[in-house]
Amino acid sequence: MMKNNGNLVLLDSSSKIIWHSFDSPTDTILPGQVLPMGTKLYSNANGTIDYSTGQYRLEIQMDGNLVLSAFRFGGRGYWNSVTLGNQNVSLIFNQSTAFMYVVNDTRIIYSMNRTEVPTTIEDYYHRATISDRGDLQQWIYNKRGGNQWTLVWRAITEPCIVNSICGAFGLCTSPDNNEVTCKCLTGYSPLDPNNPSRGCYPDVIVDFCDANSSTSDPAIEEYNNTDFLNDVFADLSRFPTTDVNECKKAVLDDCFCLAGVWSDSRCMKKRLPLMNARRSNPSTNNMVAFIKVPKMENQDQHRKDSPSWVVLLAVFLSCSILALIFGIAVVYNHPLTQPYIHGQPSAKPKSLHRVTEELHQVDEGTQVEDMILVDWVLCCVNAGNLRSIVSHDLEVLGDFKRFETMTMIGLWCICSNPTLRPSMKKVIQMLEGTVEVGVPPEVDAQIS
């Protein structure tokens, strides 16, 4: 049966209680409920959409401390009752006052509600729930004509101080300390665009310590009033400095360090992954955070809103088509192919075979009889003999470097193995010249 206080009770045939819901809480406690040491409440995964177990936990620890934590990620909690060392601790939701208290055997040792809750038990239903955003919140509902639950108290006054609220490499912002916004740090993209709190992944994997890499000369992205919080032992190093630029340079010069924070005349180099990037008022005021990114990433970020970026997208979409059309035009206009294209009677099969061999001369071992246009051009590129197929066209020879680049990009775009085709971003970088255009693999390598 359901009692008036919301406790669901199961009775045996003699009306003896064999189970009741107050002994098995999930994410909510009600007035009259007592949680002893060792009890844990878990948030759900996603509001009213997914009621499976989420990533946050309220625990009355055996050391006497009441702690909120992102338990799936380890580390210490982000909020606690500061009651460490007490014995026989319980959390009580008082049925008369609608206040929550942490008590030991003899007294109240912590009051959850520091100010009076302006509602009475007689007129309102009360509940306290750990939300999917990691906050313990008290809600009320008017018993007479109410149409929604209203928030009257919360443990967390700055929602972005909740650990891992935006996932790995996600930045939490909340200007009004009410609604949370998650976005990826520069150089990272969301794992799930429909659920930004799942975190982000790097756009490119880079090794800043590789002197031969194009990313060995990185840039620094700066975030004002921002912190990348780690536990004390999770920082790479710390040193005192009153100069924020000295901290920035230290992060830039250390190839093993990808991020850092300057705060209170102290520089902290951070380990990865960055789980708690946050901009929260007032907790992170006057802090400066840095993240290291490849220069090409930094440049792309500023190009995305410019007309040139749109033009490059258009070029990308047509690059492979242009390369093929250009190649066909080259072959069509080649002097050796004209007699056969125009159907001149002197074109005998034997002569045609000889011309085909001339057009396909890549090396002595190449089988050319059954080659198609793309394979032929690819073989010429791999043999370093691309210039020979346009040797008759002085206009193309005059701009051969661009022809070669466009041809190779086109070959990459139509690679028979889809996994080898470059991403849109990489094609743009190839066209801009910020990434070297490598020689496409041979046909056999693509297939295998």
From TrEMBL:
The chain crosses the membrane at residues 309-332. Keywords: Disulfide bond, Membrane, Signal, Transmembrane, Transmembrane helix. Pfam families: S_locus_glycop. The keyword Phosphoprotein does not apply. GO terms for biological process: recognition of pollen. Residues 121-190 form the S-locus glycoprotein domain. InterPro entries: Bulb-type_lectin_dom_sf, G-type_lectin_kinases/EP1-like, S_locus_glycoprot_dom. This is S-locus glycoprotein domain-containing protein. It comes from Acer yangbiense.
